[in-house]
Each structure stands twice: as C-alpha cells, then as structure tokens.
Automatic annotation (TrEMBL):
Belongs to the peptidase S8 family. This is S8 family peptidase. It comes from the Bacteria. Pfam families: Peptidase_S8 (PF00082). InterPro entries: Peptidase_S8/S53_dom, Peptidase_S8/S53_dom_sf, Peptidase_S8_Asp-AS, Peptidase_S8_His-AS, Peptidase_S8_Ser-AS, Peptidase_S8_subtilisin-like, Peptidase_S8_subtilisin-rel, S8pro/Inhibitor_I9_sf. Keywords: Hydrolase, Metal-binding, Protease, Serine protease. Residues 131-372 form the Peptidase S8/S53 domain. SUPFAM superfamilies: Protease propeptides/inhibitors (SSF54897), Subtilisin-like (SSF52743). The active site is at D140, H171, S327.
Length: 385
C-alpha cells in the first residue's frame, strides 16, 4: 500500500513535458537533446534548430550544459491577423465598408475587385506581366485547391492531424484569390493570375497555429525555391526562432511580405511579428477612399500600404466572400511584387523591395503610411529607366 501511495505521489508531482524550440549556434546536437530526455518533434534544414518535448528542469540543465546552445524558447501560438470576425467593436466596421461584412456567393461573371484596380495591377497585366514563373508560398490556413477560380501548383501541411493542405478555415483561400485568382469569365481576378501558388498550411480550422510550424513553412519555402512568401498571420511576441528563420530566408533570396497587424486603434507602435522584422515588408491597409483604416497597425517598421477594406475574393467551396484587414492588404503587395519580378527576372529580392518602396504613392507620415500606396504601374515604369 505504501509503495502504491508513493507511486501515485510521484505521478502527481511529475513535471509536465512541453514543446520548446532549441536553437544551436552551428549544428544540432542530437546527443545533448537525448541526454536530457528530449523528444524531437521537428527539425529544420536551413537553421540549426529543433522543436523538442522536454521538462522545464531539463531545459535549464540542457541550456547550461553546452556553449553550443544559442537560445531556448517555448513554442508560441500564432494566429491569422484579426479580421472581420474578431476585431473589437464590430459596429465600427461601417466606417470602412457599406457592404455586408460577410458575403458568400457563387459568381458566374468575372468581377474586378477595387483593390486590384487601385494598385494598377490590371494596367501591368495589359502589358503582359501576370506573374508567370514566379513561385509564391502562401503560409496560412491552406488553400482550397479545388476552387474553379484558383490553380494551386502544390503545397504542404504542417498542421498536426491535417496532412492535406486543403483550407478548412477560409483565410488562406481569400489570400490566394487576391494574389492569383485566374483571369477567366468567372469570379474575381488576382494581381498575378499566372503566378505559381503554393499552399503552405500552418494554421488549423480555427486560424490558430504555432511558431514552430510557421518556421517549418519558411524552411520549406527556402528548400522549394519560393520567390515570395506571404505571411498574413501575427503574434505580438517577438520569437527568436521566427526572426532567425526570416533572416535566413531573406539571405537566401526569398522576398517576405506580411500583414502589419490589425491593432492600430491602440497607442504606440503596434506593428506585429513577423511584419516588424527588418527582413519583412510590413503592409498596412487603406480603404477605397485612400484613408488608412482605423485598425491598420502603425509604427516605424511600416513599409507599404495596400487595399484592405471591402476586399472581395475567393472562399472555399467555389464561393466568394467580402473580407477586410491588413491580412488582405499584404497579398496585394505580394501579387504586384510577382508582376515586377516577372518583368525583371535578373533582379534579387532586395532589388524588388527597393523598387516597390521607391515607386509607392506617398500618402502621409511614415509611421502611419510607410512609403505609401503600392503602385504596380509606377514600379514597372521605374524598371525601364
């Protein structure tokens, strides 16, 4: 009986085993992880880091036992950028749209979304630049690859229990439509309709995920030679692992574009991560009246503005929906970047970024409007100088 009580007491006081990300300075030390009873869940090819299930005491012991450990941090949660369904005070939405907030319907004739016109993507399409041969990774909730208005070249899922990259939340499909909906006789048209779309699923059916999976998506994008990745997701916590991943992706030639965040109604610098990292283009949102939306995050790292209110785009099951938020602004910049990169395939990611910044239409102070509104036609003309 005494031994049974002792065993029960031991079970009750046993330390919880939770996921941590361990980053090494040069290479992964598998022996060290094993020595401290860590179970590796994920490892990365482009950064020397692993996701490990391990007890808190063993984390501390591991960290103090080797000079090769760069840092250890818990695996943080990350979400889609707050949109129409989760912004505070929904009655304020009337300030940015007079249309129904959620409009889902099949469209038998093609509609030109106002945002695609606003950024002059159509004018550049008329000149023959539609994003051909540009590979775009949509790191999001997946994409509905059966949608009649989308062509998805491929993809991968990092969501546990969801091996398929089919979108079961809807966010990634909306992002995909803004970037690359086909130029056909139905639905909508994207900024770069001939670009190659890759669905990289890191968010679940509720729009939630983990930094470790986003890093896996970035890691896969590097390995798969993506030209551009769109990151319409956010965390308010700075992750050293996420920062390390975007830095490596940028160094290896990937152009990273992210939603600035939808907490602009708060005071101070409200740019969220990964948009706040210097390697990433942070995109804020305007409405059709060229006004910065009240929710669009602002701060020193804001880089460009794009349409992000009353954005009509693709949604799962061959439907279309009205969306808003900086998560919808970011893919406008991604699509335009694809157009310009097609026109100038010899350029590097840093060059494309510089062109987009230099040719944006100035709108106001940098912290609120970045360099201004993205303009595809100005950017294309700039490349011909």
């Amino acid at each position: 009986m005494a031994s049974d009580a002792l065993a029960q007491s031991s079970t009750l006081t046993q330390e919880p085993i939770v996921p941590y990300i361990i980053s090494f300075k040069t290479s992964i030390d598998y022996h060290l992880v094993s020595k401290f009873e860590g179970k590796i869940l994920q490892e990365y090819q482009n950064i020397p880091a692993v996701v490990v299930e391990i007890s808190e005491s063993n984390v501390l012991n591991l960290k103090n036992s080797s000079s090769q450990v760069e840092f250890i941090e818990p695996d943080l949660k990350i979400n889609v950028v707050s949109d129409v369904n989760s912004l505070p005070e929904p009655h304020l939405m009337s300030k940015v749209t007079s249309q129904p907030l959620i409009l889902s319907e099949s469209t038998s004739t093609q509609t030109i979304p106002w945002g695609i016109e606003k950024v002059n993507a159509l004018e550049v399409q008329k000149k023959g630049f539609t994003g051909k041969n540009i590979k775009i990774g949509i790191i999001d909730s997946g994409v509905d690859y059966t949608h009649d208005d989308l062509y998805v070249t491929g993809g991968i899922s990092f969501v546990k229990g969801s091996p398929d990259y089919m979108d079961d939340f809807g966010h990634g499909t909306a992002v995909a439509g803004i970037i690359g909906a086909k130029n056909n006789s139905i639905g909508v048209v994207g900024a770069a309709p001939d670009s190659q779309l890759f669905a990289i699923k890191v968010l679940d059916s509720k729009g939630d995920g983990y930094v470790s999976d986003v890093v896996s998506g970035i890691d896969w994008s590097i390995k798969s030679n993506m030209n551009i990745v769109n990151l319409s997701l956010t965390t308010t916590t700075d992750s050293k692992t996420l920062k390390k991943a975007v830095k490596e992706a940028y160094r290896k030639g990937v152009l990273l574009i992210s939603a600035a965040g939808n907490i602009g109604f708060n005071e101070g610098d409200t740019i969220t991560y990964p948009a706040a990292y210097k390697e990433v283009i942070a995109v804020g949102a305007i409405n059709s009246r060229n006004e910065r939306t009240f929710y669009s995050s602002s701060g020193k790292d804001l880089e460009l503005m794009a349409p992000g209110a009353s954005i009509y785009s693709t949604s799962p099951n061959d439907q279309y929906s009205m969306n808003l938020g900086t998560s919808m602004a970011s893919p406008h910049v991604t699509g335009v970047a694809a157009q310009i990169w097609e026109a100038t395939p010899h350029l590097k990611n840093k060059d494309i970024r510089e062109i987009l910044d230099n040719t944006a239409t100035k709108m106001g102070e940098k912290a609120s409007y970045g360099y201004g509104l993205i303009d595809a036609l100005n950017a294309l003309n700039y490349t011909k100088k």
